[in-house]
Amino acid sequence: MRENTLKQRLQAGKAAFGVMCTFPSPAVVEMLGHLGFDWILLDNEHGSITVDTAEACIAAAELTGMAPVVRPVGNKPEIIAPFLDRGGSTADYAKDANRHTLVCLMLEEVEAIKNLPDLVKVPGVDVYFIGSGDLSQSMGYTGQQAHPDVQEMMERGVQIITGAGRIAGCSCPDNLIPKFLSLGVQYFHGSVGRLLQQSSVAYLQTVRQAAANAGK
């Protein structure tokens, strides 16, 4: 069984940077792995990735040494199990599978942050991830991830997580990553859409300026 490189990295106290993909494309997943991302979030909740299409994406990620993480549409065993149940079924395998499986709790509402003092006591959870997009919406600041109240709520959550000796993760605007790194957050992700937007804007600005300078 493959070692979970993401768990190893986090347990060593290092930061891990991932990317969220909402569509099933093994080719894109493999490309992202070769670009150097530590992990990829295959989104079954908000995208078109299914149990059947996730399998090839998982293989593509593992081919490059990038850790695949699946975000299921719900937290019921019958929803989660098909994503996990892709190997053998012996007792030894189950023991190894449990050891190599990373469990990440998504904290996306004010109620979740309020319940964190109890949640951080739950055994078997590897990462507590604060999703700033949904959290901002639950606070009445839809789309305002950098709003001071949202940031204060996130910082409070991170302090509870790290104060309990657990691993914290979050989504946030890129310019706020240094702040959350300094607060002890280790687990971050961007998205394929945002990467395409940022790189495309930068590319077009460069080439259009070059064309303008050339009088074209």
Largest sheet: 7 strands, parallel
CATH level 3 topology of the largest domain: TIM Barrel
Please give the domain count: 2
Helical residues, percent: 40-55%
Q: What is the tally of beta strands?
A: 7
What would the average pLDDT be, to the nearest integer? 92
CATH architectural group of the largest domain: Alpha-Beta Barrel
- What pattern of helices and strands is seen along the backbone? HEHEHEHHEHHEHHEHEH
| The CATH top-level class label of the largest domain | Alpha Beta
- Proportion in β-strands: 15-25%
The backbone outline, from C-alpha atoms, is globular
CATH superfamily of the largest domain: Phosphoenolpyruvate-binding domains
- Spatial strand sequence of the major β-sheet: 3-2-1-7-6-5-4
Helix and strand layout, with pairings?
Layout: H1 5-11, E1 16-21, H2 26-35, E2 39-43, H3 51-64, E3 67-71, H4 77-84, H5 91-100, E4 104-107, H6 110-114, H7 116-119, E5 127-131, H8 132-138, H9 148-163, E6 167-171, H10 177-182, E7 187-191, H11 192-213
Describe this protein's structure.
The chain has 216 residues and is of the alpha/beta class. It has two domains: 1-101 and 186-191, Phosphoenolpyruvate-binding domains (TIM Barrel, Alpha-Beta Barrel); 103-185, no CATH class. It is 50% helix and 16% strand. It has a seven-stranded parallel β-sheet with strand order 3-2-1-7-6-5-4. Helix 2 (26-35) links the parallel strand 1 and strand 2 (39-43). Helix 2 runs parallel beside helix 3 (51-64). The chain is globular.
Features:
TIM Barrel, alpha/beta, 216 residues, seven-stranded parallel beta sheet, 11 helices
